[in-house]
Automatic annotation (TrEMBL):
Residues 7-236 form the ABC transporter domain. It is found in: Membrane. SMART domains: AAA. GO terms for cellular component: membrane. Keywords: ATP-binding, Membrane, Nucleotide-binding, Transmembrane, Transmembrane helix, Transport. PANTHER family: ABC TRANSPORTER G FAMILY MEMBER 20 ISOFORM X1 (PTHR43038:SF3), ATP-BINDING CASSETTE, SUB-FAMILY H, MEMBER 1 (PTHR43038). This is ABC transporter ATP-binding protein. It is a multi-pass membrane protein. It comes from Cerina litoralis. SUPFAM superfamilies: P-loop containing nucleoside triphosphate hydrolases. It comes from the Bacteria. PROSITE patterns: ABC_TRANSPORTER_2. GO terms for molecular function: ATP binding; ATP hydrolysis activity.
Length: 244
């Protein structure tokens, strides 16, 4: 795999009986790129992501993530990526600091490394006053930012974000994207699924899935030019009508 390519997907397919959830998708993602994986609910985004992060085996096709095969090296992939699910994957009955320590241990960090990371994270996120509070008591936006930071505790090459901004206000969404930009500028590749079409504008490139297939893939600017649209939402609507 090209050293600059960190995700390489070739005809990746996932079938559930007679239903094909992901249908022979192919694409590449470069180091430090913010890659948007767009589509309506049920389009196959999350199913595709689960194969890429090593928790679901493909029915056919192949993919390499951080240089490792999703078919034969899933456990190694998990050690080289970060992942933030729709539910943020934090434990509500643990404090902020305890959550950081717990996930730091899972990622194999030393006690000293965990302590240093926790101190830095709490300071950067402005959570000093609530570091001993249960995560369940925090506002949704704070949970979201903490979950993203925790997913990067072990300095992964790639971070997968599954609908990370669902349910939060526009200001918090913007702050979250500022964190994404900072991570990408430091060389981390961001793979993000979303159904908010305006968020596609923040990505370097986007793919649009419709019924398990990638029907469009390019920069937001080129997609808007191609579909003669003034927004990514308009691109998506035109694409969906063409498929119908």
């Amino acid at each position: 795999m090209n050293n600059n390519i960190v995700i390489q997907v070739d005809k990746l397919t996932k079938e559930f009986g007679d239903f094909t959830a992901v249908n022979a998708i192919s694409f590449e993602v470069s180091r430090g790129e913010i890659f948007g994986f767009l589509g309506a609910n049920g389009a196959g985004k999350t199913t595709a992501m689960k194969m890429l992060i090593g928790i679901s085996k493909p029915s056919s096709g192949e993919a390499q993530v951080a240089g490792y095969s999703v078919r034969t090296q899933a456990e190694v992939i998990k050690k080289n990526i970060g992942y933030m699910s729709q539910k943020f994957a934090l434990y509500d009955d643990l404090t902020v600091r305890e959550n950081i320590a717990f996930f730091g241990g899972i990622y194999g960090l030393s006690k000293e490394g965990i302590r240093e990371k926790a101190d830095r994270l709490i300071e950067e996120l402005g959570l000093g006053a609530v570091s001993k509070s249960l995560v369940g008591s925090l506002p949704l936006g704070w949970k979201q930012k903490l979950a993203f930071s925790v997913s990067m505790l072990h300095d992964p090459k790639i971070v997968f974000l599954d609908e990370p901004t669902g349910g939060v206000d526009p200001i918090t969404r913007r702050q979250f994207w500022e964190m994404i930009y900072k991570a990408a500028n430091n060389g981390t590749t961001i793979f993000v699924t979303t159904h908010y079409m305006d968020e596609a504008e923040y990505c370097d490139r986007v793919s649009i899935m419709v019924e398990g297939k990638i029907e469009a893939l390019d920069t937001p600017k080129r997609l808007k030019e191609q579909f003669k649209a003034d927004s990514m939402n308009a691109v998506f609507l035109k694409l969906a009508r063409n498929i119908e």
